[in-house]
Queue: 4 jobs
Job 1
Amino acid sequence: MRFDDPWYDALASGWGESDGTGGPVPVVADALEGRGGGAADVYLEVQRSAAFQEVRSRYRRFVIPGVAVFLSWYVGYVVLATTAPGLMARPVAGAVNVAMLAGLGQFLTTFLFTWAYARHARLRRDRAALDLRWDTQELTRGVRGGER
């Protein structure tokens, strides 16, 4: 494989090197444009595949409930801070009150959610997504070479 080839692996090339204008150069999709629409067919085929649907459903099964819980916790904090100032001002230990603990809890849950998301992605989605990426690139290389 030649490293100066524009079809060089998108993972290694950072999804396109800079073209001097500050923006990335598209590696696959735009390079195939105008060659009979083959790339669009490849991406549609991959999108319809069971493997792609599984990766998307794993993503949604984690992110949708996670975001719902996190936003509920955040909105609950804001609502309590504005509607129940007496509760939020209740001292817990010395100068630390319920509002301070809840505010620190917001930071803690942000980091916890980020850690959980990264762990979930690493254990449940990254390998399957990487396999899909390689398969897609092989298919698009086939379109480019006229093998399809």
Job 2
Amino acid sequence: MNAPTPGFTLVELLVALAITGMLLGLGAPAAGAWLAEHQLEERADALLHALDRARSEAVKRGSRVHVCPDASAACPGSAAGWEGGWTIAVPPAGGGTGAPVAIAHERAAAPGITVRGNRPVADYVSYTSLGYARRVDGALQMGSFTVCRSGHKARKIVLANSGRARLERTRESCP
């Protein structure tokens, strides 16, 4: 008698492939939802850390530091959207007319993610040398950013009157 050769039969291989296909079919939507949630969380964390870094840089340098939506590192009064990324920049010393010095730059958000600031922080955030968030005209600058993706819960970055920012997970559904 011949000894059986090791390996799989064609039927065993087809059954294994069918089971693998069903498991992948069930897991793919969950993996997509997890990835979308992770991207939303990453964008909220990135903005929170940018605000913290700008505040720290303002105190360290003893001068103003701006966080501006991308396409306008010059700030204030930028019309660019926050989902396009942002730049942390130091304006020219003494209110001069030179170009601001960029400290850091954050890339654009993944498609489908929106980042909106309410009126006090819609255009820019500016920190004084003491770490307070104040508009260039000296007005108090506190507000919140809403980071959203359709079908998910919104994340808010809340900027307090002290200049500190915090992340808040909400129960609000994104449109």
Job 3
Amino acid sequence: MKLFLKILFLSVIICALYSMPVMAGNNNIDIPDTILHAKRIDEIKFKSHAFEILGSLYFPLKEKEKHPLVIWVSGSGPSFRKIQSPQTKKLVNCFLDNGFAYFRIDKPGNGDSKGKLNDDSLFAQLSDIIVDAIKKLKQLPEIDEKRIGLFGSSQAGYIMPLVISKCNDVKFMMGSSCPGENSINQWNYLIGKQMICEGYTEKQSNKYVEMFNTLRCTNNKSEFDEAISFFTKNPIKIKSVNYDSSFVDHAKTWWPRDIDEKDVSHFNPIKIIEKLTIPVFMLYGEKDTQINPVQAIKSYEAALKKAKNKFYRLKMLKGTDHNMSITTSGCLQEIQERNNSRNYFFNPEYYAIVKDWIGVILKMKL
């Protein structure tokens, strides 16, 4: 299980170096959009179970008695409170320029936050941290506790619904590239797409996905043994996810099994979305090879209709990858090469849509 979860989420997260406050107190200066439009940045410390968390609370230049608040919920992998990327600063400014305070943390084990996350209870731990952050932040006199929302990407699609199920203080949810299925199916999609990216045929990809799904989900011993035999006889190596068929030696320990639907791998966020009545805004890249954008939009659409949600927006961006960047293939290999060269740019439509949605939120009676 732990081996599986360690390779499960592979979305690229833009992480950060610290930025100093800029031009505090003057709202009329034309500041470049790649410099944070922050009046000040406060360090916020709090505890969540065994974790000691440190986050940064970015206050906008606009003077207000109380600010609406958006909390960033990161994807998988390392995540830091400090913001380095000009592209990310430009995105954060979409909130700051509209009077929002913006909060993000050092994930446990990163930066100055202490503690080690447990793979087998990852979603529960991360969602509890965000719930505890909300409890801390809503007590601040500068924060409008009636206008607190979540904004996240990728793995955040599992975390944010859990937070909302535990906390009545969240008034809207906004995200990009958030899965609409459990993480086993999400992994199947990712691994199948990366195989094609690296030269395998669609037929080969489909067969490997079928066998991997059998290995993870079947309760039939003969089917399980067949999948073990398949991976043993048909070695595979996928460079972009550092994945090869040697995992099958560990996979033999997965039997006998009693599949627990509460297991993190089987958690389907759509079950919570089906009950969600707060505003929901979700954006997807047409060429996402890490989560299935078509399936996700269809699942969100059906779930929100079932919930009789009165306000939601779902949008697909053409020529855009998992990280909301303009792409040729959407393959992880392309994303990694582009990020290593620091030659990446968010799709300009991403900023425009986020700004539009922020404006809608500000006009709503939450």
Job 4
Amino acid sequence: MTLAELSGCYEAAAVPLRARLRELRYALAAAEDPEEIWGIKRRIAELTPMLTQMNELAELTAHYYDRGYYRSEKYTL
């Protein structure tokens, strides 16, 4: 598997996360119970970094071998 193919896997894995975050935001807007609101916010806070990292890794693996592509130090050894 090449890094470009791996990029597609990261992008595909991000789709359900985006959908779930959208659902949680709608639920948050409709929620009235403080405990439910807290739980939804907590879940959003847990999923958001996962989605961010998947997006970053998809971008990195898609362009890793492109000349002049700036690689984030976050994923450099």
